[in-house]
Fold:
Amino acid sequence: MSPETSLLTSDPQLHNLPLEDGQAALTPLSQSLLQVLELRRSDRLFSSRPIPMPVLAHLLWAACGVNRQATGQRTAPSAKNWQEIDIYVAREDGLFLFEPAAAALRQLDQRDVRAATGWQDFVAGAPVNLVYVADLGRMDHAPRWEQKFYAALDTGFISQNVYLFCAAQGLACVARAWVDRPVLAHILGLRDTQRIILAQTVGFPGRATPAAPMTDGHANGSAS
Structure:
């Protein structure tokens, strides 16, 4: 991890996210919600410039961080409070799992696996790729159709939180469904109860080769 992070407890793989001391890294939110909504868009041109850890910390908190300490509830709604969506974070320095309760990133792998998070050509060079994974095992004994429906719904809430944060901070962002799920699931080390729902690329706006709109008859799966 970057030296901007600090360790929580004695676990060398758990890295504290600097929420308390990271305010200076954020763009002042002088815009109204309506103005932020006007700025919300999907971009596919990303700079390779790294996202500072304080900015990433607040982005993840906005996505589904804990905003009610007494109950552990979060910034994004969750059907029946299942909290079944996990966020995996792929960066140049490795693969991480966001742990909302601890406000920390757990390092799972030191390899750069960004290229495996999607077939679009910009994913390998963008600084951050988020992968939203549903753990159906947390969803009680709900029918499978209900599990899939609510997992997709809850992912949509989280993804939109990321979009709005990026709009407010001047970051580029795009949600993506065009993913080789079996390959990525193996790289992430997912269990049988876990399913990849969506990926989302985040970074500073920049120049890159736009993703091809069609390959072998398959749409690129990116949002707009």
The two ends are 32 Å apart (CA to CA).
